Amino acid sequence: MVMKKIEKMMELLEKKGVHVVGTTEDFYRAKEEIVGIWISAESTPELFDYWSTKMEWMNCFGVKPELDTLVRKNGWWFEWHDAGTMMVWPS
């Protein structure tokens, strides 16, 4: 059940142009209690900007507002790992 939920969100993100690399288990190379999605944010600067100064992006922590809204409506949220790596976690 959990993997189906992750796969569905990965597909949705990819349809929106996000460069999905894999799961957070792939990133950390360890089994986790909660599995999220690993994104290469540096591959799509039009969607993610760690250093963003765009006023409309400020409340979304450097995520394009429309993408942030879509992810939150589906029960997930974004978290930066570093300036080029984003994780998406289930709420």
Number of strands: 4
Report the β-strand fraction as a percent range.
Answer: 15-25%
Instruction: List the strand order in the largest sheet.
Output: 1-2-4-3
Q: What portion of residues is helical?
A: 25-40%
Query: Helix/strand/pairing class, anyone?
Result: alpha+beta
Cα-atom radius of gyration: 12 Å
The quaternary organization reads as: single chain
Taken in chain order, the helices and strands follow as: HEHEHEE
* Cα separation of the termini: 15 Å
Low-confidence runs: none
Shape: globular
How confident overall, as mean pLDDT? 92
User: Biggest β-sheet: count, sense, barrel?
Assistant: 4 strands, antiparallel
What is the count of DSSP helices, taking H or I runs of 4+ residues?
3
Can you tell me the number of structural domains? 1
